[in-house]
Each structure stands twice: as C-alpha cells, then as structure tokens.
C-alpha cells in the first residue's frame, strides 16, 4: 500500500509512534510518505520505501499566525497526486485531521478518493482538543474521518465522554519493537560511567511539560535517596526543565541528578536503569513507560488515564494516585530493596512489554488500512 503519514516530527509520543509505525510498514513492503514540517526525529535514514516531504509555510507580514493547515492540506493534495498515495493516516487530531479532511475534499473535487484514518494520542483530546476554542473543529474532524483509533481504552472513553462522537473508535495500543530493545548489541551497559558500585539508577524521560509533574519526579527521588544510594537521570527537554534544576539545588541533590537533554539513545540510557518514574497528571497510554519495560525496567507511575493498561500493579511496577509522592517513593524502595526483588520486577516488566510487540500491533493497522481502501472501491 502507498500510505501518507502526517505527524508531529518532534520528540514526543505521537511522533515517535507514527515514525516507528511508518518504518515497520516500510520494512513490510509498504511505501511510506511522511508529510510534516521537519524530518521526524526518529527518522534517521530514508530508503526506497520511506519518503519525507516537508511542509513549508511562506512568511507574509499580514499573517499574525502562519496558516500551517492550509500549507499541509495543499502539500497532501500534491503528494497524493504525484505518488498515487492510497491512504492517509493522521496522528494527533489537531490540526492534522482537520487538514486531512480539507485535502480529502479537494481531491474529491478532482475525482480522487483518499480514505483517512485518524489516530488520537492523548493531549489532542484530554488537554488541547477539549478547549472550547477547538472543540467544534476537533469533533467535526473526528466524525469526518473514515476510521478512528485511540491508543488506549481510557482515551476512547475520554473521547466519548468529552466529544459528541458518531464514529466508531478502535483501540490500537502503542507498541514497541521488542527485539530492538532486547537484542544483545555486543556493548555491555556501562553502569560505572553513571553510578558508583551499589548505587541504584533511576530514570525519567519526557518532554518536561507540566502534565509530566516534573517536581514530583524530583521529590520521589529525594525520598528514595534518603534511604538508599541512588542517582537520577533526567532525559528530555521542555518548559519545566529549568525549574527542575533549581529544585534539585534547593533540595541539595544536584550532585545526584543528571540532566541529559533530548536523546536519540534512549535504549542505551534505559539499559543502565533500575527503575523508571512516570508520575504524570494524565497519560493516555504512557509510551515512555512501555519503552522502559521493553528494556526490563520496572515502572513507578501514577494511575491516571491509560497507565494501568500498560503498567500492571505489583507485576511490572506500582501505580499510585496522582501527587502521592510518599507512596510512590515507598513503592520504589520496595522494588529496589534487594537484587532478587528487583530482578523479578525486571523480568516481569519485559514480559508485560512483550504483549505490545510491534509484530502483534502492526497487523491491526494493516487490516484497518485495507478496510479503509475497500470503503471506496
Ligand atoms: O506525552 C506527551 O506529552 C506527548 C504526547 C504526544 O502526543 O506526542 O504523548 C501522547 O501520545 C503518546 C503516544 O500515543 C502516549 O503514549 C502518551 O501517553 C500521550 N501523552 C499524554 O496523554 C499526556
């Protein structure tokens, strides 16, 4: 199949899912066209089956806001015609589903039917899309999509609760390429670079937005390091990072916390990690938790949104109410207290992650694409 994928190219769950999906589809012989405003960060190499088309928005002094949707829908029309693309898959409703619908209509005018699949990722529904300024357009574009998927049951429930949805929503969870994370790369994890003998390594990875509750990450770690020797690796960048650095100084733990910035070497970082922290306010799925689990890292998370669909209580880690820092720290210490317990949780984390292997999830998308194409035959 010839598939156009529209996504955000930045570090962030929806872009990562879209990119990994496209790359795996290409490996399975499909022709993939990424259409976005810059090359997706996880898209290192282009190949005969993987194309990238940049959306440019020309600057004009009259525009206070640059009309990205307009440029995106025009680019979609051009690329669909040029490459004879058969299906459009948009990730994140805003503004992609809206621009996709406009492209569909323009193409229809020229006698071309382009089926559109929309995948809802989380904040496009729970935080941004729900804003009254966007709601009518988001509702409209979800209802106009040929097929709609959500990355968890919890997100599906939220979408139905928050919007007047007439379309079916199919749950297709986030996925992970298990072999990539478990294969022996030949390079042993170099723990000694990061921590001393006997120190536990704890990691948080995110885009450091408010919804991730970064101060909670620091405070949970603060409580842990009072009891056992430990280091915290903070990976990612975003608006909350500076405050987090200040908080570490105030708590006197700046020598135990390492801020890395954005990284494309997540696997190497997770390879050193004993425990992952994700105390988010809300998380439609929690791809970062799944990525950790696929590297045999147990997870301490909040129990909001879809996190309980990926982090299994007492098995791959523990879940607590949002903001319950004390309980999260206690649960972390339960996991980290001795090597036998930690190893059991590590084994469990990997086996839960295997349920989300890309090999199990990808066929769900392929059959949806086929259904979407058939709809117009
Ligand atoms: O987590 C973020 O802030 C990024 C965001 C995105 O859209 O890029 O992630 C959302 O989509 C991911 C992939 O489907 C999910 O795993 C994340 O849970 C979800 N984030 C939230 O719901 C906050």
Automatic annotation (TrEMBL):
Residues 11-179 form the Glycosyltransferase subfamily 4-like N-terminal domain. InterPro entries: Glyco_trans_1, Glyco_trans_4-like_N, Glycosyltransferase_grp1, Thiol_BshA. GO terms for biological process: bacillithiol biosynthetic process. SUPFAM superfamilies: UDP-Glycosyltransferase/glycogen phosphorylase. PANTHER family: SULFOQUINOVOSYL TRANSFERASE SQD2. Residues 195-349 form the Glycosyl transferase family domain. GO terms for molecular function: glycosyltransferase activity. It comes from Flavobacterium weaverense. This is N-acetyl-alpha-D-glucosaminyl L-malate synthase BshA. It comes from the Bacteria.
């Amino acid at each position: 199949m010839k598939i156009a994928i529209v996504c955000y190219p930045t570090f962030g769950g929806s872009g990562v899912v879209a990119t990994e999906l496209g790359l795996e589809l290409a490996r399975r012989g499909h022709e993939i066209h990424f259409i976005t405003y810059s090359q997706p960060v996880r898209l290192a190499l282009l190949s005969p089956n993987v194309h990238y088309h940049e959306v440019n928005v020309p600057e004009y002094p009259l525009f206070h806001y640059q009309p990205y949707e307009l440029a995106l829908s025009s680019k979609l029309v051009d690329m669909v015609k040029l490459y004879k693309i058969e299906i459009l898959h948009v990730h994140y409703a805003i503004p992609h589903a809206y621009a996709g619908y406009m492209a569909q209509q323009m193409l229809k005018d020229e006698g071309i039917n382009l089926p559109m699949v929309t995948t809802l990722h989380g904040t496009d529904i729970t935080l941004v899309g729900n804003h009254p300024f966007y709601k009518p357009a988001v509702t409209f574009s979800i209802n106009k999509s040929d097929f709609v998927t959500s990355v968890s049951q919890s997100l599906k429930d939220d979408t139905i609760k928050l919007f007047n949805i007439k379309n079916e929503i199919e749950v297709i969870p986030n996925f992970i390429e298990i072999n990539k994370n478990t294969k022996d790369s030949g390079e042993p994890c170099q723990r000694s670079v990061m921590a001393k003998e006997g120190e536990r390594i704890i990691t948080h990875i995110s885009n450091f937005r408010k919804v991730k509750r970064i101060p909670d990450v620091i405070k949970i770690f603060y409580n842990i390091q009072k009891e056992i020797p430990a280091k915290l690796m903070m990976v990612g960048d975003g608006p909350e990072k500076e405050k987090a650095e200040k908080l570490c100084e105030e708590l006197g733990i700046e020598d135990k916390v390492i801020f890395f910035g954005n990284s494309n070497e997540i696997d190497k970082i997770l390879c050193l990690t004993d425990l992952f922290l994700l105390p988010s306010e809300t998380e439609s799925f929690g791809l970062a938790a799944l990525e950790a689990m696929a590297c045999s890292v147990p997870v301490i998370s909040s129990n909001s949104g879809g996190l309980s669909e990926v982090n299994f209580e007492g098995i791959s880690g523990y879940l607590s109410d949002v903001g319950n820092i004390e309980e999260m720290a206690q649960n972390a210490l339960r996991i980290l207290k001795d090597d036998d317990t930690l190893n059991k949780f590590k084994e469990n984390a990997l086996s839960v992650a295997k349920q989300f292997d890309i090999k199990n999830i990808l066929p769900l998308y392929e059959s949806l694409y086929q259904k979407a194409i058939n709809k117009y035959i």
